Amino acid sequence: MLNEEIVIKTNKLTKTFGDFTAVNAISFEVKSGEIFGFLGANGAGKTTAMRILCGLLSPTSGEAMVAGYDVYKENELIKKHIGYMSQKFSLYENLTVRENIEFFGGIYGLSRKELKEKGNDLIGRLGMEKEANKLVGSLPLGWKQKISFSTAILHQPKIVFLDEPTGGVDPITRRQFWDMIYEATDAGITIFVTTHYMDEAEYCNRVSIMVDGSISALDTPHQLKEQFETDSMEGVFLKLARQAKRGE
Amino acid sequence: MKLFFSFIRKEFWHVLRDTRSLVILLGMPVMMMLLFGFALSNEVKNSNIGILDLSHDESTQLLTNRFDQSRYFSVTKNLTHESQIEEAFRKNELRMVVIFPPKFRESLLHTNQAQIRLVGDATDPNTSNIMINYASAILRDYQNEIFGEQKFPYQINVESSMLYNPKLSSSFNFVPGVMTLILMLLGAMMTSVSIVKEKEKGTMEILLVSPMRPLMVVITKAIPYLLLCFIDVLLILVLAYTVLDMPLRGNILLLLAESILFIFTTLSLGLLISNLVDKQQTAMFISLVGLMMPALIFSGFMFPLENMPLPMQIISNLIPTKWYYSIVSSIMVKGLGIKFIWKQTLILVAMTVFYLAVAMKKFKIRLE
Ligand SMILES: Nc1ncnc2c1ncn2[C@@H]1O[C@H](COP(=O)(O)OP(=O)(O)OP(=O)(O)O)[C@@H](O)[C@H]1O
Ligand SMILES: [Mg+2]
Q1: Chain A residues within an 8 Å CB radius of B14
Q2: Which of A32, A140, A245, B137 is the most exposed place for a label (fewest CB within 10 A)?
Q3: Containing structural domain, residue A146
């Protein structure tokens, strides 16, 4: 599934807020079709970096290309080719499942017919036929997250950015969520995901670990474990996290 | 365009499924109409009055001075003909006119009877009513002086009338006020709260990360409220017409057009607020304290502006509601046309453009 096409490339990408450097000269590449884990403790700068890549924030310095477009000049073009699931839960609670799907699909320019088809298809795959016309606000968090993810990839973007998509969700639902992620990669979508769960890091093709705004390690989970002489990602993370100065 | 409608539909769903907004939207105008329906008493101080003296004798001279010296009135104009009254009211120069008939003193002394007519500007019937009462009191005092306390047959008959508003119902006065307040509340508060809510919930981020232009996002959020505000204008007019028997004097199309202009003003204020704050509560607080309070105090319908200290009167010119209130009451109660309100209209247009420009500038800064 992996090929060598590079869909995200950053070079010394930096973001400062006043005199605080939230993201400090990070450089990495993400290949097409990859599941790229973006790990880091609270406040490491993951969300900030992700928002830059999505065109929501402009960087202070450094370079970044997403889906072949420059984040400074072509952020409007980037937006057409990505999906984004923010750290905050972000569907309209006052709308039904179907209305949410149709609305968010609609803002990516899908036609009414496409929306109907894809909406039905999606509801079928999620097994939510009974809930399709219920307000999203009344559903459990895990379901909402699944709908959120599905709407984020409804328009078949090149890359989807997931900011802690499984935060606060039970292990079984998390497992199902990751099945959905694998399905998406089968459809050729590149995944850029942050998480706090170390078991999820194992599911990624490659993982970067951010400490205080910088990337301290970047490799496959297997290589990282060897490098840090431990048998779990948990161990890798703990060894790196010890260097962190930004407290919790 | 299709997208545009799906946005608007989404926004309507939000409003219609949220009982709180529905109550504000429909309950508020109805409640206010009924609430303010109870006459509000207004105080009167140094109101400008005119004298139409057709007699020019000792008594009328004396009475004119009495009026001028009273703390309620100041005589600012001497009229020569009855036809000037309406004009003076239209221009808001005078609030009341005292008419002395020819041979006032003569008839008072010889026939023991004299007529005086008081004509009030009924645009503001509460105030006019109070003014006529004060004026009658001054005339009674004078009568007692010349004839002593004795219950003599000598009498000054006071005949009062109102221009524009013969039925003297206080509802006529507060309807424009309710319209002003409702539009301010809905336009500014509901728009700003609904935008800030999207920021707070994180949905705004999803909208901004989509290919939709940020400007489009904001415009589509504002349009449903434009429609809803307009519906409320119609609702209030229908209530005024059916429940309160208020005749709609002016040109209804002009009134609606001016209302749309004012809705734009309030929407741009709402946009401005939404760009300044990040919490729904803050947006609500700013709308209530920063916009509603001044709207209540400075529009002139609860507290007559001419009773305010000069600095307050000057401040009132900066409050958009004052101008809209003046426009609506000119059209609805006085039946005036654009010729008499173009100045207020221009001021509102200028204010709207200013708010929009600032809001857009802030919006750009937010998105870097
Ligand atoms: N707009 C901003 N202005 C100032 N500081 C900010 C801003 N956004 C983020 N920060 C700061 O930058 C740092 C990194 O924040 P960020 O949200 O990127 O961390 P994170 O790795 O996503 O953390 P978490 O795991 O808690 O989501 C934090 O210390 C945060 O306070
Ligand atoms: Mg984060």
Answers
A1: 92, 94-95
A2: A245
A3: 91-156
Q: Which residue in A52, A54, A88, A72 sits closest to A213, CA to CA?
A: A52
pLDDT tens per residue across span B164-219 = 544 444 446 678 888 888 898 888 988 898 889 888 888 888 888 888 887 888 88
> Could you tell me which chain A residue has the CA closest to the CA of B1?
A109
Assigned token pair, B269: 């204020």
The kind and range of the H/E element at B41 are none
pLDDT tens track for B98-129: 888 888 888 877 777 778 888 887 776 667 77
Is A200 domain-assigned? no
Would you list which residues of chain B are within 8 Å, Cβ to Cβ, of chain A?
A: 2-3, 6-7, 10, 13-14, 17-18, 201-203, 205-212, 368
Q: Could you give the number of structural domains in chain A?
A: 1
Cβ distance B193 to B24 under 8 Å?
no
**ipTM here:** 0.86
Ligand 1 touching residue A47 (CB < 6 A): yes
CA distance B203 to chain A (A): 5
- Cα A116 from Cα A132, distance rounded (Å): 12
| Rounded Cα–Cα distance for residues B185 and B266 (Å) | 8
Kind and range of the H or E run holding A38: strand A35-40
Neighbours of A82 (CB within 10 A): 28
Residue B100 in contact with residue B57, Cβ under 8 Å? no
Distance CA B268, CA B256 (A): 18
pLDDT tens digits, one per residue of A172-208: 999 999 999 999 999 999 999 998 888 899 999 999 9
Chain B partners of A48 at a C-beta cutoff of 8 Å?
none
Q: Do B212 and A107 touch (CB under 8 A)?
A: yes
pLDDT at residue B29 greater than cutoff 50: yes
Instruction: Give the mean model confidence (pLDDT) for residues B24-37.
Output: 77
A78 and B209 Cβ atoms separated by less than 8 Å: no
Tell me whether residues A92 and B203 touch, CB distance under 8 A.
yes
Q: Return phi, psi of residue A200, to 5°.
A: -70, -30
Q: Which domains does chain B have, with CATH numbers?
A: 2-40+169-362 (no CATH), 47-146 (3.40.1710.10)
